[in-house]
User: Fold this.
Amino acid sequence: MKITVNKKNPPTGVLLALEYAKPFVKIESQLGDSTSLSVGSDIVFNTSSTILRYLARTAESLGFYGNSVLEKTEVDHWLSFSTCRIGCPLEFDDALAYLDHVLGPLTYLVGHSLTIADIAVWSALYDKPEFRNLLSQKRVPLNVMRYYNFLAAKPEFQLVVKACLKSSSSPDRDTTQNVKKERKEEGKFIELPGAEIGKVVVRFPPEASGYLHIGHAKAALLNQYYQQAFSGKLIMRFDDTNPEKENAEFEKVILDDLKLLGIRPDIFTYTSDHFDTLMELCTRLIREGKAYADDTEPEAMKKEREERIESVNRNNSVEKNLEMWEEMKKGSSIGQKCCIRAKIDMKSDNGCLRDPTMYRCKPEVHVRTGNKYKAYPTYDFACPIVDSVEQVTHALRTMEYHDRDDQYYWFIEALGIRKPYLWEYSRLNLQNTVMSKRKLTWFVDQGLVEGWDDPRFPTVRGVMRRGMTVDGLKEFVIAQGSSRSINMMDWDKIWAFNKKVIDPVAPRYTALDKENAVPVFVRGAVEEVKDAQKHPKDPAIGFKRVWYNSSVLIEGADAEELHVGETVTFINWGNLVIKDIKRSSEGKVISLEADLNLENKDYKKTQKITWLAVTEKAPFVPAVCVTFDHIITKPVLGREEDFKQYINYNSRVETVMLGDPELATLKKGDIVQLQRRGYFICDSAYDPISRHSGRESPCVLFNIPDGHVKEMPTAGSKHKSSGKELVQDKKGKAAEKSPQEETASGIGSTPTSLHDQIVQQGSRVRQLKSEKAAKSDVEKEVKQLLKLKNDFKAATGQDWKPDQQPPPASAQQKPSVVKESVSAPPLPSDPKALNDQIVNQGNKIRQMKSEKAAKVDVEREVQALLKLKEAFRATSGQEWKPDWQPQQTDGKERAHVENEVSGSSPADQSAGLKEKIDEQGNKVRQLKTGGASKEEIDAQVKILLDLKGKYKELTGEDPTPSKPSGKKEKNTKQEKKTDTKNADEKNQNKGKKEKGAEIKPKAAADKETVVEKDADLGAALADGTLSREVKKVTRLGLEATKEENFSDWYAQVITKSEMIEYYDVSGCYVLRQWAFGIWERISQWFDDEIKKIGFQNCYFPMFVSHSALETEKEHIEDFAPEVAWVTRSGQTELAEPIAVRPTSETVMYPSYAKWVQSHRDLPIKLNQWCNVVRWEFKHPQPFLRTREFLWQEGHSAYATYEEAEKEVHYIIDLYENIYENLLAIPVIKGKKTQKEKFAGGDFTTTVEAYISCSGRGIQAATSHHLGQNFSKMFDISFEDPDTREKRFAYQNSWAITTRSIGIIVMVHGDNKGLVLPPRIAPVQVVLVPCGITAQLGEPEKQQLIEKCQLLAGTLKDSGMRVREDYRDNYSPGWKFNHWELKGVPVRIEFGPRDAQLNQFVAVRRDSGDKLTINLDSAANAMDKLLEDIHNRMFAKAKQELDGNTVLCTDFGDFCNKLESNKIILAPFCGGIPCEEKIKKLSARDALTEDGAPAMGAKGLCIPFKQPASIKDVDKCIGPECANKPLYYTLFGKSY
Assistant:
């Protein structure tokens, strides 16, 4: 055997084992860069645990591995404990406590003698800096201390410790010591005045009202620094002087964060520990005339302080002040108006000395003291006193407290108590974020972040989740020191410190962009695997397996940069020569061929490539790389600026990757470097393929910024034409180093062309300056000039100079450095070519959507499509349409014009073009006024547009059109204004959509956008005028289709059909008459039905007391009401916050308890129609998920279970009736699973509908049997008439909401708008007169109107809801579209000819069919027609439901069906853990609409009508579930 010992970081445990094993085992030893044990030629052990095990088994006589199977198992346990528990910073404290508990009765961990368990645990403690710190402070637990000292006294241990200490003092000692030496402490730490070693006491006093952010972390770490520097004490004190803000949950979070930071205070206290002392001292100041009670109104007091006016109470007698003070301590109505103020100096220039408040009356429950106190001290009064009482010697505070220093010392001197020393340091201010707890809370409440630990947050948990290390944060704080200089810190500096910590220890792996990976076929390569270092500079970090094969993948961006014959370095492999490159018809690289050239070891001048081998033996690990941007776009916000105006709604980007097979070993929290991409932290570990589901959970990696200006790495590869790589080449960097990413624009140009461009751009800049152009325009052109100069330097290797001649062509060829520019080709000027490109681009986008491509990629292609359409409009003079056909133009005339304006100087060309434009414009106008044909006008307009395009290309400006005089010019301006307004609105909506906010489509029914539709459109656009004959069309119809963009379609339908109006409170909407009319009909039908079974309507208040709501929260498992709270009346804070009802159980049931005194008082059957408010969601959708919605809620109480159960099923039958017989929507009726049932209920029945376009189920209504849970909670009880025993009532609650309206829209709506079922449509029939033209005489017109009214009257008399549309400012066609959009079931068209024939035309909304009906049978025929419409609508929806409901017994098939938007009936055991697992595993690739998260299958219901009976051979659909299925359950994605 041969052992190699790491000379820089000796393994204590291995050395101890070797010392004991020397007499029994012959081992050769040597020093090296890593620790390993070689056994034979091909067996090597690299970890301390495996070496210890091997040595123990080899030297059996030592008994180091235990003497029985049980002891051997215990030894294995302690070996794992030493690495996993003691070695983990987060678990170290718990591990130490556990070890102390175990060691209580023991001398050795296993058996009665020394084993490798003792060696491993002792050495883990010895090597742990935290343990050494505890040793120096004498804070090691008693049993652990005894055990540690006992072993340390053994001769073998002393010998090894001595050797390790000698090694650590040598110059070669590395790892953390050398790294820390390199990171010099840059900050300046002021020596604390009067500080003595061992006597310094500092404190960290946070308020438990939120999570710690890194500003707090700086404060805590600074205090710890001085605690350790002077071997003093650190007090952790919760400032709990404000009961309104104090929260026990936040206390726990803060303590956990401190533990995470490695801060271990010596003493834990609360300000409330000293409340009695503070009250006594306040009374003393009042008696001494140094404080007084004041009942001045807060606003008046504020004004007096600003104007330095003394309060009328300032000179009250001591008796009066003490009397008011007593009222405050009682919390009486008088006391609540008072406060205690210090009598200092109302004339002081320091506002903090103008009689500050010491005590205020707050009769609220304190989290620690309960109701004991009604008056609480302010922080300013309590802080100096508690600092003094707790023997704090030095109080560290940020500079923002500077004005309060005099106040702090005044209280100390007035009371004559010990005086601590105040030391100020600068507050940590960071750019592009907010540090206020109030503002951070807003982000959480709005759902813009995942929570307080979101990686974009400045909280301690947020930055550590993103990859900040405790050491990195400490190094940053140490670098800042206790400086008083105030500045806005850039995040880059913090992350740069963190990089120094993680770079030496982060293992290197590879991942490729899945979408853009390109195969390389390597000739001569064989499939094999080799070990490679995880870190190129430190073998101690370990080794990874690297697979090689003849087929590998590289980044697409790298592939585009390569050329045939080039030598390329594949990292961890060697050099390869590119032999062939295959490209697609679009010029994109699709594959490469290469030859091995491993003998060539010259890596300095080659491109470095990351790659992965394709092999079945080591499949890729699916990974998702997540990069983050700042949550605030503006670096520094002004004092008065609203942060909400600068929110970055696109601050998270995900990229799907093909990961190195070694990524499968990562655990949550592991930090790695993806080569040429950056540093990442594992947020979610890879979960292998389940044998049941066939699915795997990807490894989710969060990017860790490294302090570069561009902190977010791109998904693409780095280009080797960057300037930084040229520098690296000169320095001779090692092969694994990769160039930094640079943009490649301009690189492909030759130096000669770049020289000419620079000259031209310089002339343009000078011209703009001489013309005194806008500063922004000048800066834009200067940036372009600098960019060109940078490109010139990159291409030639030298700076551009005015008198310099560009190098000859031969010198310009530098293929190893400069690549061809990969820029977008110029757009063609031919409308036909543009049309072809638009068609191809549209097909490409549709294909990407069908393949569920990444949203960011689809949006990129959509932008390209929009640019093509804009170019088409500019070229052809008309909007692109799918059926566009090219028109013949006068080619000779166009060529003649082009020839005339070419061949001159730029100035002459522009002047000539301007003349030609004016002439051509006049020609177009003459043709228009002369009544020329459309084709002729269009041809001339195209020539005019071509001339304008050339003019703009030459000058960079649009030509100024000739201005016609008179009224036409005025009209033109008005039209331009309208166009601009519409464009602005469109851009605003687009911006909102990109940010994820609610899109509020403009209701075009009332506000029309006028556009041109006649033959004069092109000419009008070309010459700046508009034709007098303007035909109007509107944006009345839908602009999105249900099939392609369901979410946009839904938003447009509900707004353009005039169902809702958006409101300025997110998640709240105005229900317009059309929507409320539908709700009224649902309500009326249901109200009549429940009254038949004895229910009565009532109304309870919408406000819920805090105590009542807490009753429900404390007694119902998993029920956490997220409610809206009323906390203020005007400017006065309420004594107790009041909730707005999220549901009414807590409002109604206290009254039920009062009303029920006997069994004779039962049953209670009450229903109320009301609104509820729920502030519990992230993505509001009108009708579906809103913060306020309307509903009915029925609440009943019965004496027996049988009565209550019967009602539950009766009500769910009524809900089924509503959907199927009123709304024409089929539903599946059943019972909710245990996981999905109402919290606190015994069981829940439900009706579930299906939305075919989204493939999701939706809960339509529920009826809950609450059992006796709530009656026990609220004591709704009665005396049993037979047994005289107390019994609790059985209760039900059930509800249907305005969500039903949204379900109507989604199920029945089409691409023309709403389709309403006749039975609930506010208008069932709309009558539109037709044929009323200018040629129709007034008597005929009046006669037609009268017949329309007669027909409408007939239908109304038969009970139909009829609307007559006699508006004369809209055409019949416009009205048809309008009422189709609103979903009216039948439209009647009635014109003069119909009147003559005694008939009318009825048009069905559901199918568009037209029927001719005789007037004499109108009522009967229309009644049958409406009935048929309802039946057909129901049949169509039923067919969709049945066609998408499938039966599955295999989980793989289950997931496939879910992805194809099916709802699934599957055998299920009913277990909650099983259902959660089904949801998790089925969510892997199941995508919902844009903006929504991935969604797994949820248990919708257990249908009452089972598809089949469960057989003995059936298995639960849950993967790896061994439980027997109980029933078939309906699963699916859900709203």
About this structure: The first helix runs from residue 12 to 21. The chain has a mean pLDDT of 81. DSSP finds 44 helices and 54 strands in the chain.
